[in-house]
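Retro notes, item 3 of 5
We never archived the inputs for the 4'-phosphopantetheine complex last cycle. Fixing that now. Sequence and ligand:
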Amino acid sequence: MGKVAIYPGSFDPITYGHIDIVERALEIFDKVIVAIADNAEKRPLFSIEERLRMARDIFKETPHVIVDSFKGLLVDYVAKTNAKVILRGLRATSDFEYEFHMASMNRSLNTHLDTLFMMTSKDYFFVSSRTIKEVAQLGGGVEGLVPDLVVRRLKEKFKLPIAKRKQMGWDD
Ligand code: PNS
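Structure as it came back at the time:
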């Protein structure tokens, strides 16, 4: 049946930090399911359909990666698959407390599941979806931190004035 890992998150939007974790996880697992939380209460910038489309585009040529969405409890979603492992990336010590709480809660909800943490690569340890959105909204460049198609979607979302886009070299 093979070893399956569920990689859950908001992916609002997906970054190279996330992609790096998926690619490295494929060295360990036979299949990785990128599970995008349909969490409207978090007021995401991108709708669930937009986040699914971006992630599916990015992994369309990567075998053994499935992109899916889920609503409600993560453990209930995982139970519907044959995965035993929840995969999360850990950046710096600041991530630890949140991740420790979440992993402990998930384990108390389902003792058959484990959360596995992978250290984010040094190139991306400062990259988060939240800061990507903030920088993009304020007209900063996020090239190299998110795939080009995400850069384009961010530009569309924030529709910067033409003068600012020219200054950033985006209208070339
Ligand atoms: O990328 P994020 O926002 O840090 O991901 C958080 C996510 C989506 C993995 C987490 O909020 C989650 O699992 N939500 C589903 C609801 C749930 O199961 N909550 C209990 C876990 S503490």
